[in-house]
Amino acid sequence: MPEQSPWWPHSRWEAAVPPPVLEAWRQALSAAEDGRTDAARQRLEALAAEHPDFVPALSKLAALLAEKGETGAAAGWLQRALELDPNYPPAINNYGNLLLEQGRLDEAREQYQRALAVDPNYSTARHNLAVALRRSGDIGGFVREFKRAQRLRVSEQEARWREEQRQARQEGRRGCLPGAAVLLLVPLLAAAAAARWF
User: Is the pTM higher than 0.85?
Assistant: First the structure.
């Protein structure tokens, strides 16, 4: 599944969650993607309260809190998520981001590598590994991992575009050209300065 799937990379979550929870999860993700962080936070907190074992919501809530500077609360949610599923790459990645923000570069790199051990095609963890390598002064490692992350992103975008084309054909609609994100790579070194949360 593409990374942006709400279940990536654990499709087992989809089968285990009732449709209303799935819809609430999608609404929370949509709110977060649209920049409506307060609405996303409310939805994620409600999901976490109603379904305290739903690891994707716990991990996403932690990421949202960390982005708002609430690192203590974020660490608590991530700890819970990783206790429930120690192999959920977005939670491992997000824990690495907390460590990175604390300047604990070696530990952050270990977490990104751990996420990549579970899924070597997880472009967000690969990007964040590049960021950690850059901050630690390993420019060769940074360039290598950043290029890998960019190639993975393009592959993910192409896969999404192909899926959109398939759906359009099934619905009798005309397809569209690939978006500019698929056609253009933006491998600017400055873009690799910040870690990405899931």
Answer: no
CA nearest to 116, candidates 94, 92, 138: 92
CATH number among 1.10.3720.10, 3.40.50.300, 1.25.40.10, 3.20.20.70, domain 12-193 = 1.25.40.10
pLDDT digits (tens, 9 = 90+) for 46-103: 999 998 988 999 999 999 999 999 999 999 999 999 999 999 999 999 999 999 999 9
State how far the Cα of 62 lies from the Cα of 71, in Å rounded to an integer. Answer: 8
- Determine if the peptide bond prior to 90 is cis (ω within 30°): no
